[in-house]
Each structure stands twice: as structure tokens, then as C-alpha cells.
Amino acid sequence: MKVALAVHRVSPDLSRNLETIISMTREAADGGADLIVFAEMALTGFILTDDPAHDLPLGQPIPGPATETLALLAREWQIWIALGLVEYERGCLYDTAVLLSPEGKIGLKYQRISPYWHGRLAEPSIYQQGSLIPVAHTPFGSGVFLICGDLFDDTTIAQVRDLRPNFVLLPFARSFDSDLADRQHWEREEQFRYAERVRMMGVTTLMVNYLADQPGLGDCFGGAMVVAPTGAILARLPLSCPGLLMASLQQMYAPF
């Protein structure tokens, strides 16, 4: 199995993001990738304000025009595509990730369980969370999604261990904030906190961080990592660098 972890500068313009995702998917498939993984909200942008008047129009139905376009792309290039987006479902918004199959179908849809993708005062009848961790069965093994803060929830980690998947797809959005002040802190400490959580799951994890197109859009710094079940970081893409991290996963599955 050859994977591509894709980092692009996410903008507030869905059409622009879609064009970039299409271009990077073609590049990855041309390079032999079986699977390409994009970041949390890579399609729509992480530009929520907790104001329903602003945020509801950002939500995308699944299936909908954007996912159908990408499903056709997956079928054309015979590649699995994983990415995050703001989902609109029956008047509610979710932080969601989808996995599109080479048959042009939705192979997996996951709604983030941890609630910290919105503010504490966001209207709970609109800004909602999922509760299940569904499993996708692929030619290269079984896989699940987690999104961002899900990785730091002990109950969620235990659920993943019980499911015993071969791999975890982890789109996330991490910025330089009061807990993570700069690049040196990430390199010295924070990346290893993520790797330690992967070790607790015991499952190969493919993680891609959101890269903001401009200041004020989450200020996330990008980067991507392949982390082994042992917590060893096997490959990484430098922070703030758009591009593809290509890796082969033949010997990286969890030792169940």
C-alpha cells in the first residue's frame, strides 16, 4: 500500500480548495498512491465563527456536489481519497471526514466525537458531534477515522483498540497557541505527544495537519506524519510546507 499525505494551503474559497485537492490527487495517483489523505476541513476551510447565519451556508451535504465531484475523481484515477469538511445534515453542522473509494462511492463517513471544533457557547442544536467509529474495509486492510482532539480522548482510544483496525486516518487542525507557542516546541515536544497517543492505540496512523492560507483562518501550521503502532515517527513533512508526503505501508500495520 502506497499512501500520500497531502498538505495544501486551505482558503475560505471552496472552489479553490476543490481545485487544489483535485490537482494533488492526480499528482499522487500518478505517483502510484493507493490512498491520499487531506487535513481536517481541507475542503471547506476551518472558518467557522459559531454564528449559524455565517456557518450554516458553509456546510456541505454528504453526498453532495463536492463529494460527488471527488468520487468521480477517485474512480477516474483509481485511488482512495480521505478528507475533512464541514458537513450539513438536517439543519445541523458536523466536523466530518469522508473516505471515497475507487468505485466512486462513499466508503466511510465519520463525524468527529470530541466537541472542541466549536466554541463552548455554540448553539448545541446546530453544532453537533458524532458518537460512532465506523470501519472501512479496503483491499489493504480495515481503517477508521479519528479527527483532531479525538486522539486525546481515552475512551475513543480504547474504542479504536477494541475495533483492531489496520490503520487510522487522522485529519487534524493544530495551531500555534498558548499550549504550543512555536515550531521549536512542536519539534522538541508536541509531535511526540501525538506519537505517544498513537502508541496507546497500537495502530498505524496517518495524520495530516491543516495549513491556513492566511493569518486569521485558524493559523494552523501544516505538517504530516506517518506513525507506527509503537509510536515511532516513520516519515514526516516539514511544517508550513505544502506538498505530498509519500510512504509505503507494507510493514507498518498494527501487530494484533
Verbal overview:
The chain is α/β, with parallel strands linked by helices. It has one domain (2-248): Nitrilase/N-carbamoyl-D-aminoacid amidohydrolase (4-Layer Sandwich), CATH 3.60.110. It has helices at 14-30, 52-55, 65-77, 154-163, 183-201, and strands at residues 2-7, 9-10, 35-37, 80-89, 92-100, 106-111, 136-138, 141-145, 167-172, 204-209, 211-212, 224-227, 233-237, 243-248. The strands form 3 sheets. It has a 6-stranded mixed sheet. Strands 7-8-9-10-12-13 form a 6-stranded mixed sheet, with helices on one face. A two-stranded parallel ribbon has the order 2-11. A hairpin with a 2-residue loop joins strand 4 (80-89) and strand 5. The radius of gyration is 17 Å and the shape is globular.
What are the segments in which pLDDT stays under 50 over at least 5 consecutive residues?
Answer: none
Task: Output the CATH homologous superfamily.
Answer: Carbon-nitrogen hydrolase
In the CATH hierarchy, the third-tier topology is known as: Nitrilase/N-carbamoyl-D-aminoacid amidohydrolase
Largest beta-sheet characterization: 6 strands, mixed
**Any idea what the shape is?**
globular
What is the CATH architecture descriptor? 4-Layer Sandwich
Number of helices: 5
Share in helix = 10-25%
Q: SS-based structural class?
A: alpha/beta
Q: Terminal Cα separation, in Å? A: 18 Å
Radius of gyration, in angstroms, nearest whole number? 17 Å
In spatial order, strands of the major sheet run 6-5-4-3-1-14
Relative strand content: 25-35%
Indicate the mean pLDDT: 94
CATH class: Alpha Beta
Count of domain modules: 1
| SSE run | EEHEHHEEEEEHEHEEEEE
Give me the count of strands.
14
